[in-house]
Amino acid sequence: MNERQYRNAISRCxxxxxxxxxxxxxxxxxxxxxxxxxxxxxxxxxxxxxxSPGKGVADGIFSCMLCEACKESCPVGINIPEVIYHSxxxxxxxxxxxxxxxxxxxxxxxxxxxxxTVLRGFQKLFYTPFYRTGKLRHIPAITSVxxxxxxxxxxxxxxAGRIAIFAGCSVNYLYPRIGEALLNILLTKQYEVVILKxxxxxxxxxxxxxxxxxxxKLAKKNIELFKNMRTEAILSLCPTCTMVIKQQYPALxxxxxxxxxxxxxxxxxxxxxxxxxxxxxxxxxxxxCHLSYxxxxxDEPRKVLADIKGIEFVEMEGAxxxxxxxxxxxxxxxxxxxxxxxxxxxxxxxxxxDTVVTSCPGCMMQLEDLKKQAGTNVNVMHLAEVxxxxxxx
Length: 393
Ligand code: SF4
Ligand code: SF4
Known about the structure:
By secondary structure, the chain is α/β, with parallel strands linked by helices. The protein contains 19 helices and 9 strands.
């Protein structure tokens, strides 16, 4: 979105409020400035010079989780998340809560391995006391061996096809076990698997902080890295990465990674879970916002779970409602994140399921934190882990 498109979008708002109906931050705060409509109205006020682009406006704009729930709701066709992204480019310095984080991110982008090694040291020394006093949110143990540690091609004699994996930072550094699960599944299904070293952050958290130029550079690097891959699909385990690559890369750069695919779509299309079986368990499913609202994928994970014998599936109330993670939102707007999340964990508890499945490492982080805080022992699993367990025990 350029400056002209941005101004045009804001000027079309008729203040109808349709976009508020699904806005999680509005429900959590009961505050118009933290609603979809309020945000567009505030940005209109800034454009018309009725409002100064200071801290109040910046807090409202940066409290948006960019969940995409409002994207299709506007009767005059305003793409609210894109309006929010664009506004953050100029408002970022007024968002004082995010200043340190922005600097840390700017430092880390060119040296992610080093940044995560430093964070790992910090986590070992200070995480437990900080978490106990409520100053930190839950972060899984940062691995000393990232999933994409080296370039590797896993050859398979009976080649079913060739697949590459786009791991994303959270799988690479926080949940390498999910990447391993996908690798096991693909190798068992006779695929040749390529893991490329050199993949960089998809850019989602960077762009969310208003660092548009930096996000653009990352997009170009990933496009360049994957452009000559001859594969049936490049599979992603994180719906945020998939959505950004599919929808934002073309808008930002004019190019994309053409055969990027979310694993739900792949598992469903190629019937990966058909005929699998596991010992009797009760499962429920949480829809990640960027998978359901962003990519429109909701039936596929349920159908994949239905393919596995032994799983009793219980639909939770509000499965499509946000869990309250939202990347840096969960740290900068912790109270709101927990209000949204507590509702989610109550819905999960009400199903009496022993396992909540989802398809997003970010949602897993939030659900693991919520379950600790609620004192419930429900398992949290990624869909790839469920299929791997059903396949390999
Ligand atoms: S993207 Fe989500 S949090 Fe942001 S305004 Fe829209 S519905 Fe609200
Ligand atoms: S739905 Fe569209 S027109 Fe209505 S308040 Fe929201 S942004 Fe404005």
